[in-house]
Amino acid sequence: MQTKNRLRFKIFDAKNRRFEVPHVHIRTVSSNPSSPITNTLDIAHNPFGLTVRRKENRRALFDTTIGPLVFADQYLQLSAKLPSHNIFGLGEHVHTRYRHDTNWRTWPIFTRDTQPNGRANNLYGHHPFFLCLEDESGKSFGVFLLNSNAMEVTLQPAPAVTYRTIGGIFDFYIFFGDTPEQVVQEYLELIGRPVIPPYWSMGFQLSRWNYGNLSEVKRVVERNRAVGLPYDIQYTDIDYMEHMKDFTYDPVRFKELPEFAEYLHEKGQKYILILDPAIATSRRVGGAPYESYDRGMEKNVWVTKSDGRTPIVGRVWPGETVFPDFTSETCIDWWVDEYERFYREIKHDALWIDMNEVSNFLKGSTTGCEDNKLNYPPYTPKILNELLYSMTLCMDAKQEWGDNYDVHSLYGYSMVLATEKALQHVFGPNRTMMLTRSSFPGVGKYSGHWLGDNTATWNDIKWAIHGMLEFGLFGIPYIGADICGFFGDSSEELCRRWMQVGAFYPFSRNHNAMNFKPQDPAAFGADSVLVKTSKHYLRIRYTLLPYLYTLFYKAHTTGETVVRPVLHDVYGSHLKRCPCFVQGVDTIRVYIPDAVWYDYETMERLTDRRKHVDMYLPADKLGLHIRGGAVLPTQRPEVTTTHSRSNPMGLVIALDDNNQAAGELFWDDGDSRGITISVSLNKVWLYFRHRSGYKDPNNLKFENITVLGVPHPPTSVSVTHVNTGSHLGATTVLPNTNIYHDGAKEVIFLLTKLPHKIISTAFGETYLVRWDMEDEELQRFNCHPEENADEAKCKSRGCIWKTMAMLSRISARPDSPDINNLRVEIRYHTSDLLQFKIWDPTSDRFEVPVPLSTPDAPETDENKRLYKVLISNKPFGIQVIRRSTGTKIWDSSVPGFTFSDMFIQVSTRLPSKFIYGFGETEHPTFKHDLNYHTWGMFSKDQPPGYKMNCYGVHPFYMGLEDTADAHGVLLLNSNAMDVTFQPTPALTFRTVGGILDFYMVLGPTPEMVVQEYTALIGRPVLPAYWSLGFQLCRYGYANDSEIKSLYKDMRAAGIPYDVQYADIDYMERQLDFVLDSEFAGLPAVVDSMRNEGMRFIFILDPAISGNETRYPAFERGQAADVFIKWPKHLKDDIVWGKVWPDLPNVDVDENLDWDTQVEIYRAYTAFPNFFRTQTATWWQKEIQDFYNNIMKFDGLWIDMNEPASFVHGTVGGKCLGDPLLENPPYMPPLESKHLGLNHKTLCMNSEQILNNGRKVRHYDVHNLYGWSHTKPSFDALLSVTGKRGVVVTRSTYPSSGKWAGHWLGDNFSRWDQLVKSIIGICRFREVEGYLPNARWYDYHTAKDVGVRGEMISLPTPLSHINLHVRGGYILPQQKPENTTEKIFLYCTKNKNNTGYQI
After folding, report:
1. Per-residue pLDDT tens over the stretch 667-679
2. Which residue, among 976, 920, 926, 929, has the nearest Cα to 948 in the 3D structure?
3. In contact, 666 and 199? CB cutoff 8 Å
4. Catalytic residue status for 1202
5. In whole angstroms, what is the distance from residue 18 CA to residue 14 CA?
6. Is 1199 among the catalytic positions?
7. Is 920 a catalytic residue?
8. Given the residues 493, 664, 818, 1306, the one annotated as active site
9. % helix, strand, coil for the chain, step of 5
10. CA 322, CA 300: separation in Å to the nearest integer?
11. Burial level of 637, CB count in 10 A (0-12/13-18/19+)?
């Protein structure tokens, strides 16, 4: 055992020295074996045989006891049984499948110049190495026979392998690995790991044999530059030479060749030329000496005939030629000298060596070959033509290393060694590139290879993949085929498909032969599909070059393969290509390995794995996929690597099943020695770890990070600069402008380059990039908000049970059919106001008739808008982004959008958890708790209580953003609805009708949000000054004397007091506009109070009794047709309810339960339809008559206008019409929802008529009743009193504040009600309060509190309230009096009583 994973056994003639390969890298057997050989090798003596075993399980891997060993002078044979048929490698041939056929297939190995055509012919290289996959565990082993003689290898069904070689020895190396990749690494450790080519050699390359002249070469260069093709390298083949002589150029057709390299360099491109080994014996044009030949003759550098003195002469391209003996040091020195001379004349960047099998157009030589055992051995392997010297030199020719019989297949190898020395001599410390046609194990340490003179056929494009995979096994990863084919005219379709796949060859070159049509991409036309798809995939190649370059670095340092099969992995281990290899086909059958995979171009996750699928690949597409778990370094592409290397870099991170990924980046100057920057990712932590002192001269930075497989946006992203010693330094949180999440594709785009000189993740530095995610649970959107959800119900709505949220907008509520024709309209009203509306254009669905203040013309200058709007389709959604910060303040591109007749749902992600608003319900805190709370909204006569919908409806919220900006959102919808908060953070709206009509104001401060919102819905009414004074009221005054006594007591106590109220107890039997006899003196009391500066407000309810024999308010209302009725097709009658008014002439027995009292004693009541102008006129007339004829007043208090009723729907409880209106398919979580929407109010099918005459259902306008009641009351007050006054209303809707104030309803005398009334925290003896970061003064003592930006404990005695004034403000003030009127009177008489508190 040479190492723990490498066994060598050698069978040779102990008495006679035989030829052994003089490999420059392979070491001799160590004298200190690493482990006992008996663990892995059994030796049998009779008959002789060797059995190689895997030491862990003693499985026989290579068992030669299957057949006899034959060891003769010119025939050696050894057979071995193998553990499986999974055999790969052996070359160089065209293998029509990657895994070998073991049905008695024989493969000859002997270097030969011949066209690869799919037959079992020996080709350019000599590689007696194969890999065997033992079983499904992945354990594998490799077998290498170090022997350069002509041989053949037969694969047999046993399975078994038989070697037959005609010289040398058996020198076997067995490599053990747990994976195929490890076996390759062990093999390359032996023969030499691959060279890391210069960065520019990763670029795309163009070549052809016989451009004809340099002008044509330049035309090709220019036309491909003109179409913007990424393109780094231009070649010239032997036609640049003078009569195809090495180290010359044609002075006529290639006159300007000495300047050609500079011509390319000016645009960042490189120049490569070709050299063949054969040297012409003829003189140059005009009889001039061919000095390269002459100097070679002087130094005796040629391969000789069998006499060892006479150069053997053959014929190649320039005519009669001699052949350098690259195994001779003298020859190597000559070659280096000739190359250096030539380089001084013709500058270029790298070298392509060809015809080095060695190729000879004659059989052996100009004089043939002698009849001897070397030229005609006893056994000839099944090589092409079955003649050893066919298309090459005689086998008895002599080289320094030995007979050509033994070293023929080493000719290319020895030429590579000599050329490497020449390149080092010329290019010094700079890395260059070599490309060789003939190869032998170990060539990859210095050179790349192309697969030779292929043909423009669909077979060749397919077979090239096998060839590249095999050369990965052979340690030559810089490998490619001639794109579009060398021989033959390539069709546009074939060349297009070849350019697509060839864009990802490690060595990517388009090359074709003379006399065939040009096939460089631009030759097909600038607007051709071929050019467009070539540019597209080459740009992807150039984007991924940092990744490809890193793969070569890993191949160079560890022996990893670059292109690999699924057996190993894929392109690297993370990029999978699926090309189309069949003419006229756009759908191919491909296998998706068992892993997470993402489409590179769409970034979407594939749904299939571990199965064959049909993949659609139209004319311009190649399948390209990223394996989950990858971190791929990228760089913004350009047309050359010279320019792309100056561009910012990025990362593509593809998360695997465990939300993890890892990767590395190697980076250097591209030409000389390098460093490593490694990148690793664990879940949501990303490290840039720098391993040496390298500083990139371009000051490159990682500016873009793309993370695939992230279904939800991160809560935050930060970049931390790590100081020396792994100490964390400054951390910068990325602003939202630098973060974009595509919910449809589940991708995060991070821009890590930050403004204001904040360094981004740069080379030469170490950084920690971190993004934080919410739990997956928090990202789910509930598509079954009703109770009793189960898997069947969930799936019937297109949802995924438990795992994630709704995938479509299917209602799955049979009584609420889906609406399939929707229109989306975005209106850019102003720079800080936009509207987005979703509705059904094919039907006349209800829209809220509340007028809003929007400009006539939109803001057309996009740059002036504070926002931008995007619409996504998978899933459908609207995104509103604040331009200044990039914050998504609205993002409804999440699952769950539903639009059906009676159920509409839309969810949006929120930019933060700071959400305020929505009402009217009792909220325990001002800032909403987002832990899955749902709040119903439907106006109702309901005292405040936790999660109980109360009097008003306000579907408006204000949100703060992480940047401290603020915005507001209004849903203009008046149907019953609810909103659900979840900690994502996200919000879901659900409503049972209407449309989605959203208005958004952009602030950016909270105060500006309120200003912009009230500009939209209407500025609040300016109340009368006196209404700012203290006010007294109660429900239950016994008579007018009680009110009079109360007033006197308040005055006597000196308590400031401006307004006195009267509740319904002043009315006779709670009838509007009728004074009770117990309050007959109230008008006089009110007059007296008003004369002393007081104001009086009385209450009115909307419900009007219809059971009176003489009640003018009802009679005039009925005559004016102001009351809400049934639709005529159901019943031409008022929808009767019951509220406070009692029947006439009854005594109420209050000992009875409430429902019984209502049934027996309450009168039928009618509800005015305040939408109509005639109703407003009637209402004003009744108020006018009351003011003029009964009692003066200064304000109105309107109550019970939700509208409230003490029966459910109507008297008798039977609502006419569609029962779904009372109990819709979806019922929001309302108080007593099980009793229906008509609980304690009108039937939802009641008909109301808008001012424009449109008939609407109460179902749609119920929440607008209080709103419609308020303006007629306000107008009546102003008209009747002639003064501003004040209206106080219980039920409200957005814009009610234009006319009225509001109180929080019928609360209870409890401490918690005090707390909730101010949405604060109160304790009996002290309170914890937060003082913002400013100077604060105690109002009472005028002293600086001395605390800012922190919580403080404050005493709360019963005689004291904590009151503080913020520094920096001037507060105007007046001397207080008992009423506001006295303050004004005093101010008029003495102008010096006012003052300022500063």
Report:
1. 888 887 544 444 4
2. 920
3. no
4. yes
5. 9
6. yes
7. no
8. 1306
9. 25, 30, 50
10. 11
11. buried
Residue 353 sits at the vertex; the CA angle it makes with 348 and 358, to the nearest 5 degrees, is: 160
Residue of 357, 560, 1194, 1247 marked active site: 357
SS3 track for 451-513:
CCCCECCHHHHHHHHHHHHHHHHCCCCCEECEECCCECCCCHHHHHHHHHHHCCCCCCEEEEC
Q: Which entry of 961, 1202, 1247, 1377 is annotated as an active-site residue?
A: 1202
1020: left (phi over 0), alpha (psi -120 to 50) or beta: beta
Query: d(Cα 1008, Cα 969) in Å, to the nearest integer?
Result: 13
pLDDT bin (cut points 50, 70, 90) of residue 404 is very high
Q: Tell whether the model's pLDDT for residue 1277 goes beyond 90.
A: yes
Distance CA 467, CA 93 (A): 8
Q: What is the three-state SS of 1340-1380? A: CCCCECCCCCEEEEEECCCCCCCCEEECCCCEEECCCCCCH
Place of tokens 């100057």: 669
* Residue tagged active-site, from 354, 696, 891, 965: 354
> Residue 1102: what are its φ and ψ, rounded to 5°?
-75, -30
Alpha-carbon span 1102 to 1170, nearest angstrom? 9
Which residue type, as a one-letter code, is found at position 508?
S
Q: Which of 965, 1199, 1231, 1381 is catalytic?
A: 1199
The structure tokens 């119900």 sit at 793
Contact status, residue 937 vs residue 1229, Cβ threshold 8 Å? no
Cα separation, 1354 vs 660, in Å, equals: 51
Six-digit token string for 1214: 């039977």
The answer to whether 71 touches 11, Cβ cutoff 8 Å, is: yes
Contact assessment for residue 230 and residue 269, using Cβ atoms and an 8 Å cutoff: no
Determine the pLDDT at residue 1: 87
User: What pTM does this model have?
Assistant: 0.69
Helix ranges (H only) for 487-631 are 492-502, 529-543, 545-558
Which SS3 state, helix, strand or coil, does residue 163 take? strand
Residues 1012-1044 pLDDT 10s: 999 999 999 999 999 999 999 999 999 999 999
Q: What is the 3-state secondary structure (H, E, C) of 878-938?
A: EEEEECCCCCEEEECCCCCCEEECCCEEEEEECCCCCEEEEEEEECCCCECCCCCEEEEEC
Q: Is the pLDDT of residue 474 over 50?
A: yes
- Could you give the CA distance from residue 1274 to residue 429 in angstroms, rounded to a whole number? 91
Spatial CB neighbours of 1232, under 8 Å, sequence gap ≥ 6: 1239, 1240
